[in-house]
Amino acid sequence: MCTLEKRGNLFILTFTGEDQHRFNPNLIGSLLSLLSQVKAEATRGSALITQAQGKFFSNGFDLDWAQAAGSEQGAAERLHHMVALFKPVTAALLSLPMPTVAAITGHAAAAGFVLALSHDYLIMRKDRGVLYMSEVDIALTIPDYFNALFREKIGDASVRRDLLLRGLKMKGDEAEKRGVVEAAYGGESEVREASVRLAENLGKRKWNGEVYAEIRKGLYPQLSAILGLTHKAYTIARL
Amino acid sequence: MCSLEKRGNLFILILTGQNSEHRLNPDLFSSIISALSRAKAESTRGSALVTVSHGKFFCNGFDLDWINAAGSDEETQQRFNLLLDYLKQLVLAFISLPMPTIAAVNGHAAAGGVVLALCHDYVLMRRHRSVLYMIDLDLGIKIPEPFMALFRAKISGSARRDLLLRGLKIKGEEALKMGIVEAVYDSEEEVTNSGIEMADDLAKRIWHGEVYVEIRKGLYSELCDILGIASKAIATPKL
Questions:
Q1: Which of A133, A136, A206, B17 is the most buried (most CB within 10 A)?
Q2: A135 — contact with chain B (CB < 8 Å)?
């Protein structure tokens, strides 16, 4: 499942257990509700870290649950359902009034990679774990908001092509070199420590959360539009 | 003109003629488009296409002789517009090809020839004896929107500006650094063989052609919007 803890100014969202942390309606529901809680309790200086236990950050949607529908049509419907349910998670992260860090200590695939990429900063392991958009390999097309996320977060066209059209399993070193993640570290504890350090440093800036969220939305206008997020202008500056 | 060879799972599109600049006129366009139709019709999972050329040129752009052989200014303009239409059709044909595509650019490519190369998912190039040159600016010719969208889709940052707005003749190493090509090779033989090797590697992934096309369209969504092609969702995963 997933849990939320507060450590000083840091909100820490954890996918617990040694499983693949696949997103099914239950987990998505929990995630949404915890993100609402984070938003409600946000203050200046808040920051969010999302992390996971075990070998996976998240391996994407729960395809077993989809297939349990019993027919190809049923599976496709369940999959569409999860794609639709997950959109508000991306929207919540994109409008969260605080800096966000994904501490990727395991594999992040498909919707799991999308969750990570929905954060402002990605920290990853060098020695284990890959970022992988598995869709091309399992014959699934990519939802519009996934595409928009990649388009606006990853500037390099060949990186986007390698991730989406080539099904590249990208390790930490390459992800760091090609600008997909902020930094890659040698082991699990280094990643967790670096994520906490980064989140704390960002929190120390005591940014106005609402303004932070608006600037973030402005950085990703197409994605914001697809997610139905509106954009407010601010004219009051703290000088 | 051009010929299409089948080698196992690979389609090899050859721009033939050692002494030819492979300039694009209605005949060559029709020939290429028809070859692509054949490849599409005969495609299976695990297909891939490599485009190679004979001689010093990959493709030196539109056939200006043919355009200028027109009887009047009006007809000259019409001929030019016709070739633009054909080029659009070419881009469309490549986008809808249900398999990975590689251009093995072993000679010079200019204007429409650069567009031809960039129509492919991956571009390999010769280190020397090969330049990419968007001659349009130097000739005082505007680049129409669909092709601008192609450049925006495939090339990022200052590389795009340098290619289009700077009249540069871009050699292999530079093209590699700019992220326009995947890799560069020393001889014509090497670039052709590497193209075939890469196609083989991609073919081994046995991607589902229809899904591959839709993912490609999603990746290049702005281009597809401008060309008026929609993408569809496929949600029955093959596990």
A1: A133
A2: yes
